[in-house]
Description:
alpha+beta
Amino acid sequence: MIQTADPEWLEKAGRVARRYKATTRGARGAGHSVYVILLHDRRRLGRWGLYVGQTSRDPDWRFDQHKSGYKASGAVRRFGVRLLPDLVAHLNPMRAWEALELERALAEGFLAADVPWVEGGH
């Protein structure tokens, strides 16, 4: 059974995410998004984590793809709980090159903010 309460570090992760800006947000050709997924593995010491990805598709649809195993991150397929759109809504949509940069930057920022388990961001 998955806990219903959010991990204590989630608010801090939100503050980290809000520090980033997308310079191409809403620009012509801006069709990519970054997304963050909450992970939960009851076997891990740090049971909760985050997956950071980027896509040219709708993030909800991409989450469903992960969960079904199509072009999936193993961590999301097995441990993905839900999307956290509020963390990145201020960034999307953007151009592809910036989505790649922000995907990596967000993952690094979450790790620096002591999120115990971060996947993706590559």
